[in-house]
Amino acid sequence: MKRFLLCAVLALACCSTLMAQKSITGIVVTEGGEPMVGLSVLLRGTKVGTTTNSEGSFGLEIPKENLNGTLEFNTGFTPAYAQVSSFLDGRPLTLQLIGNDLVAAYYFDQVSVTATAATALTPVTYTEVSAAEIAKTNLGQDAPYLLKWTPSVVVNSDAGTGTGYTGIWIRGSDPTRTNVTINGIPYNDSESQGVFWVNLPDFSSSADNIQIQRGVGTSTNGAGAFGATIDFSTNQIGEEPKLSIDGSVGSFGTRRGSVNYTSGLLDNGLKIDARYSKTHSDGYVDRASADLDGYYAGLTYVGDGAGAVWRFNAFGGHEVTYQSWNGVTQEEIDEFGRTYNSVGTEKEGEPYDNEVDNYRQNHYQLHYNNEFGSKWKLGISGHYTRGLGYFEQYKAGEDVADYGIDTGEDGPEETDLIRRRWLDNHFYGTVYSLRYLASDKLDITFGGSANEYQGGHYGEVIWARNAGDSEIRDRYYDNDATKRDFSNYLRSNYKFTGALSAYLDLQLRYVDYEFLGFANDLSRIDETATHTFFNPKAGLLYELPSGGQAYASFGVAQREPNRNDFTENPLSTRPRAEKLYNTELGIRRQHGDFNYGANVYHMAYKDQLVLTGELNDVGEYTRANVPNSYRLGLELQAGYRVSDKFQVGGNLALSRNRIKSFTEFLDSYDENFGWLGQDEVLREDTPLAFSPSVVGALDLNYRVVNEGAHLVEAGLQTKYVGERFVDNSGTEGAALDAYYYSDLRLAYTLRPQGDSRLGALRFTLLVRNVTDQLYVSNGWSYRYNFAGSETVLKGMYPQAGRNVLVGLGLDF
């Protein structure tokens, strides 16, 4: 409620407008970055207008009485629009036509350190998702579920609904290998290298643009860049003042409310953004509820002449989710149904009612950007993230000695108890870039980051049936870890001719990690691990005579093991760092009504870390290096505007993902389940886990009505994911069946007419999995030998069948 009131106060306090004549200039480009020539630009309600020149540029003098007006761009199909308030005096605004929407693009280099983002001249494989595309289906789902239609993407939800704990795989690379940045600042957890989207509820509502780089991509900031990168940009300047209120309800008790405000750029150089969201879902899986609070606030100051730009962001969230991490086995499905949740059932009688994950995370960012003359651009950002929370579990029959509980000489050796495992962490540092535009041919950027993570890990017993001499919240373990990450890169683009340009990107990264681990005698000691990585990348890009681009690139990425690899292994058995050699060859083109892209990739891994079933020196299952593995694939994507009403698009990824050979270790049991040790099995040319050979998506959009105040749209999106394996054995019992699902979207927008002070009224009906497919998107396995026969226990994460979300939004 406090944050809602803050948003409302800001909205009322900041609704002022620019009150002087304004000179604006802009550049209009296609989605592929090509200039749109001869485009009509008209100030609505006036005779002020012009056309774009051979470079897609235009300029207009806007009268004082029209400073809150709208520009109409005649694209040859449905007109596109941009607000006059989006333009800064004396600075060109680049507008990119994505679908039917014009998206402001100049701010990406102006308000945040995004020198790590790819551009139209970068020879890497990437996809852009605009705010307009996000908004079409955004009814409160986590970010992975808004990105699931992009190429080579597979998503999963523990709760089965896309709210709560969700994950995203890109080209089969798991979430710990996908680097996520927010305005150029790392978001991945420093120790596990994973991404916990649940800690940023409804964050996509504050995103202006999301870029997904597949493969090594450009040098970036953070630890997880080992197969894909996702960068969120939230620092747009050029947008009109708006206050939006959104609400949605749906299946499984889902409800979400959000208020979102932006002042636009005021005449004093300030811009204010604010959002507060609250989401609840009961979950498809039993008890897999989620209560999520998310917020975002931004304050921008643009100095005189628009040279210096300051931006402060504060955002975060609080999540309380009932755990549904275990999945379900086929035997449990047969007995209890596919929504069965074993979490909390160690308690006799009804499942424990507070088996929850309870975590709060707050982020603070300060960005400074400036231009010096026409050649130098500087960007510096400081950041701080504070996280604190726990997960709570009811455990039955635990050894009291494991928790430091003394029950006396004749006391019980076991007890039922409730424990909390805490994370108490701080992450802070700086990222920076300095760009030098030496000439029309040479562009050089130096950048990097320096970050430190401090993580506290401790466990508490908050209740025990046989408590002995213990006190409430006694800590049964307590250890700290510190990780420092430093990197620098030097990047350059050089244009040999008008068509051919070269790209070189050299990164040096140093990692220092201090933690509590095992010595060779298995005693617990403070340890330190360091890694130094040199990651070069190079490529060529050729502008095709008929339009479009062809590109080729090669890049190297290296990555340190994660927390468990360090802490659960003595130095003698600790795994080595992983290395990736990535080659990309591609072509992309926008030509009239038709756009397409095709690329071939090869990702060769050296010492990739995988689970093999092997036990370490302390009896834990840990990951091991496999010498050689690879991903080889073809990605295709295309879109066609059949008419000004009907558009069709889609993508298809075909790949082969293999480990050349490795040794799998299987626990061996006799007929009475007595453990006999481990058996070794040589596996050769086996599929990499969670890596389907076929992934595709189809997108159909039809404008039913587009007249006057009324806009009615219908969309059908279909996803297909081929067979995946939950481990690296490649055996039939480890496979998840191929599946597909389709989402149907119906949207009605009542647009303002004349001098109405109200904005649009928006209604959205989203029917997810409209054909009611009962599919499984993720799983795990435990492979063992029982009485000489190889056996597998497979856990699965069933996803919801047909379900509905209904959204209503109002803009002011």
UniProtKB/TrEMBL annotation:
Q: Which UniProt keywords apply?
A: Cell outer membrane, Ion transport, Iron, Iron transport, Membrane, Receptor, Signal, TonB box, Transmembrane, Transmembrane beta strand, Transport
Signal sequence, start to end: 1-20
Q: Which ranges carry the TonB-dependent receptor plug domain?
A: 122-228
Look up and give the membrane topology term: Multi-pass membrane protein
Transmembrane segments in this chain: where? none
Family, per entry: Belongs to the TonB-dependent receptor family.
Official protein name in the record? TonB-dependent receptor
Organism, per UniProt?
Neolewinella aurantiaca
